[in-house]
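Bug #77: duplicate submission created two jobs. Keeping one. Sequence:
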Amino acid sequence: MTATLALWISIFLNGLAQVLLKKGVGHTQARTGVSAKWWLSLLTNGWIWAWGLSFVVATALWILALSKLDISYAFPLLSTSFILVAILSRLLLGEYISRTRWIAIFVICLGVILIAAK
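Kept job's structure:
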């Protein structure tokens, strides 16, 4: 696996992990509030386990990518996860994303394109 591929997969999994985490904690807190029982319920929540797995794999791939790529190149590309999280939160969580937020995400995309072009 190339360092660039590891970087992009890591970025994707990191964004996915954030949505999985929200999915895992979002519905349980509304029912029971934040208590010891709520914290323990996270241990049996499949969304939380999926988040943990995604996060661990993303971190391993990030380490692999950083071993070969400049941090000044790789780190700014993490902002592409903002785009992914916005899209996934709309599709999977039904969240509303305002026009202003989409414009801001577009500006982030332009910056990422400039960085990725080296």
